[in-house]
Amino acid sequence: MDRTEHLRGRLFAGDQLLMDHVEGHLRTRPKPGNAHGEWSGYFEFSPEIAEKLSDGGRYRIVLTDGRSGHVYIHVRKDDPMGLGRKLADFQGNGSVRR
User: pTM, whole model, 2 decimals?
Assistant: First the structure.
């Protein structure tokens, strides 16, 4: 069963802090035979951050609750709700660790 939750945290490219305040949604799903499961989600970002994000790039997300992990980001071209927001989807790589 999928679990969706609100997320808050920071986004890093290597050791460089890209976003001090990441806010979005995180979806986790148990995967039979795999202790780590799957995780993905999305977050909103400001236009000045857009030039620092690479579509398909690997980043590290550190959540305020202590979990962290590497993510691959897909920068959306359009806001599906037509609100003009800048959004990025992410897919976790490995486990989200505390």
Answer: 0.82
